Amino acid sequence: MLALPVVRLKKGRDKPARCGHPWLFSGAFAALPALEPGSLCRVEDEAGGFVAVGYVNPARSLAVRLLAWLELLLRERLARAAELRRSLVPADTDSYRLVASEGDFLPGLIVDRYAQVLVVQVLTAGMERLLERTVEILVETLRPTSVFERSDLPARREEGLPMRKRLVWGEPVPAEVEIREHGLRYLVQVQSGQKTGFFLDQRDNRRRARARARDRRVLNCFAYSGAFSVAALGGGAREVTSVESSEPAVDLLRRNLELNGFPAGEIVHGDAFEVLRAQWQARRRFDLVVLDPPAFAKKKHQLDAAVRGYKEINLRAFELLAPGGELFTFSCSQHLDPVLFKQVVFGAAADARVEIQMLSRLGHPADHPVSLAHPEGEYLKGLHLRRV
User: Fold this and answer.
1) 66 and 112 share a domain?
2) pLDDT digits (tens, 9 = 90+) for 24-36
């Protein structure tokens, strides 16, 4: 597309084309280059923004007939993404990933919905150019109260883009937005929280843990805002111990428990590695353990250290599991593939000298689709295990 000759429209003459009209007359152009009739061309607005691809005949008044429209393509793919979520997300849940970048064939764009607030992340220079129109389409079709941008990821620096957080459209976003997930309530800090404020990719896994928590002693490590803790108590857990190193996250964890009418239980403000060692030394036992750490390997050269970290936390978790207890263990490190992750976890089980059954492989929910042609999109890996 970039190699095509360019024909540029006069100011304000791009609207019919952006709305899908297939004809452009010679008067709409500042000048038409001397191209051979029938040549493909790239139609741009007066500022150089891409409008469409067409074929040109400079000798005719009807100078350009359009073949492909960026506007219609963008609108169609956003509509398909929204329709998929309407078919997937249950009625008792109002928060989900609306657009999953390459998984929805919109590379560089993430859109998360938190009740009536949309949070967008733009990761590439190409999608940066489309942000304004993307927001317009989202507002027109979904009618949110606010659209907030969280383009504050390091990946933007590699694209030569600045880090940015701002209100893009609508009402000011409160410091905390209340959402529902499978009937449970959570407070989400969309302006300052991790990722876009909440780990939406763990929704199905929280539901699975909730279903296994009844009458069990639960240990939730790397708890962040306590979503797995809330889910476990929602499933009837006897007691929950939550471990989190961030003081602001601990405060949010407490309030998420209170919001659902659950007791705080034991909340440990500290490093999960140290807490796991201390729990082991104290010979404590748990019936269900959740390990949902941050990415230990954000770069490929960090993989060896990450493998050691994953092995240690899983080793300690196995040592803390009571017979018949279950472990939900995860990695969101893109550079640690599922095969190696499984090998690391089973190596930890061997070192702990425990017999372990694998009940299921885990990943992200269906609102985080992955293109079969883009396996790198399958970043979240998890295992549901049981000690015999």
Assistant:
1) no
2) 999 999 889 999 9
Q: What's 377's domain CATH number? A: 3.40.50.150
The CATH number of residue 58's host domain is: 2.30.130.10
* Number of domains the chain is built from: 3
Q: Note whether 219 and 320 are same-domain residues.
A: yes
Residues 248 and 369 reside in one and the same domain? yes
Residues 153 and 285 in one domain: no
How confident is the model over 204-262, as pLDDT tens digits?
999 999 999 999 999 999 999 999 999 999 999 999 999 999 999 999 999 999 999 99
pLDDT bin (cut points 50, 70, 90) of residue 1 is very low
SS3 string, the chain, reads CCCCCEEEECCCCCHHHHCCCCEEEHHHEEECCCCCCCEEEEEECCCCCEEEEEEECCCCCEEEEEEEEHHHHHHHHHHHHHHHHHHHCCCCCCEEEEEEHHHHCCCCEEEEEECCEEEEEECCHHHHHHHHHHHHHHHHHHCCCEEEEEECCCHHHHCCCCCEEEEEEECCCCCCEEEEECCEEEEECCCCCCCCCCCHHHHHHHHHHHHCCCCCEEEEECCCCCHHHHHHHHCCCCEEEEEECCHHHHHHHHHHHHHCCCCCCEEEECCHHHHHHHHHHCCCCEEEEEECCCCCCCCHHHHHHHHHHHHHHHHHHHHHEEEEEEEEEEECCCCCCHHHHHHHHHHHHHHHCCCEEEEEEECCCCCCCCCCCCHHHCCCEEEEEEEC
| Mean pLDDT score across all residues of the chain | 94
Whether 203 is in a domain gets the answer yes
Instruction: Please give the residue range of the domain that contains residue 284.
Output: 199-387
Catalytic residues: 332
Write the pLDDT tens digit of every residue in 286-334: 999 999 999 998 888 899 999 999 999 999 999 999 999 999 999 999 8
Q: Is residue 328 located within the same domain as residue 278?
A: yes
What's the pTM? 0.86
Within-domain flag for 95: yes
Question: Does residue 59 lie within any of the structural domains?
Answer: yes
